[in-house]
């Protein structure tokens, strides 16, 4: 695969209600933005029922499509369509531990050093932290933490849900990319390495024909700070490649969930998310 590829991404999700919902307010975080390693050339979000939408950028820099539905409805569907040209992210030299633990850095990165309920790693996941603190290169530390998580957790789709915590997944020894990311964040932050949750998409085929479509799900990985933000995917054991597409960043999954909102009406279930990624060039 070349260093730069063009991808077309279709992400469809929503909710079904057991009766009629009277009204709802929703936020979708499903739109990639142009960054130093990705150029978004086309993007739109479609909503059914058809209602006006408005867009803003949230506190963490994620593009949000927000909308109100005032009419009764038994289903809500949201679909994003994006075309993006991507490249591998570059990685410079890392800060040393003393620079990283400078109070000015810690103050600036406080939101990415705090441990939330979702990212709190159990003691069993922290057994090698003293060893890692003795490693000079922070890049090597991050890669070692990711390898440790993969060694101790199996990737098993459907084994957890969006409310699962790092401790839950670690105890079960299995999870999905969201869980492996949460555990990795908890370990890195426990050592004083600022780290944030990244949501987006991953084109899983290393070698693919032009026009080939890969069906999957949204993806999650880690960015850790060492003077600059560097991406690492603990699920796949790789850095940020040309096959990664960033949508949002935050402290944990709660800051970047693809679709969330409030509504008045009966109980609801998800429609099931569909992600299709086609390589264009």
Describe the overall structure.
With about 280 residues, the chain is of the alpha+beta class. It folds into two domains: about 5-85 and about 255-280, Immunoglobulin-like, CATH 2.60.40.2250; about 95-255, C8orf32 fold, CATH 3.10.620.30. It contains six helices and 17 strands. The protein has helices at about 95-100, 105-110, 130-135, 140-150, 165-170, 175-190; strands spanning about 5-20, 25-30, 40-50, 55, 65-70, 75-85, 155, 175, 195-200, 215, 220-225, 230-235, 240, 245-250, 260-265, 270, 275-280. The strands form four sheets. Strands 1, 3, 6, 10, 16 and 17 form a six-stranded antiparallel β-sheet that branches. Strands 13-12-11-9-14 form a five-stranded antiparallel β-sheet, with helices on one face. The chain has a four-stranded antiparallel β-sheet with strand order 4-5-2-15, with no helix packed on it. The chain starts with a strand and ends with a strand.
List keywords for this structure.
41% strand, C8orf32 fold, Immunoglobulin-like, 2 domains, 5-stranded antiparallel β-sheet, alpha+beta, 6-stranded antiparallel β-sheet, 281 residues, 17 strands, single chain
